[in-house]
Design goal:
By secondary structure, the chain is α+β, with helices and mostly antiparallel strands. It is built from two helices and four strands, in the order E-E-H-E-E-H. It has a four-stranded antiparallel sheet.
């Protein structure tokens, strides 16, 4: 993009980590991790949480109607951290091949 904006030659950026996103949708009063299309369509609210290699929150996006209580968010965030660790291991394994 540097050349495109006439600010020098293009160059590659180093990758220092792998942020991983976990998605949840509330369906019928329960939160579903990694919802399928039908669950998303029938959902009341959704949240996407991206966590970095060090376990820090990188991004958060809430959608649809409804609200999360602090307790609900804490529970969802805890599950998101666990799932992101699992997913990061899968990604690292695939990258190694």
């Amino acid at each position: 993009p540097a050349e495109r904006f006439d600010v020098g030659e293009d160059y590659t950026l180093s990758v220092n980590g792998t942020p991983i996103m976990a998605s949840f949708t509330r369906v019928g009063g329960r939160y579903v991790y990694d919802p399928c299309e039908e669950e998303e369509l029938g959902g009341d609210e959704r949240i996407h949480i991206t966590i970095g290699d060090e376990g820090h929150l990188h991004s958060l996006q809430k959608g649809l109607r409804g609200v999360f209580t602090p307790q609900e968010f804490a529970e969802i965030f805890e599950v998101a951290q666990e799932k992101c660790v699992e997913l990061r291991k899968i990604v690292a394994k695939k990258e190694a091949n």
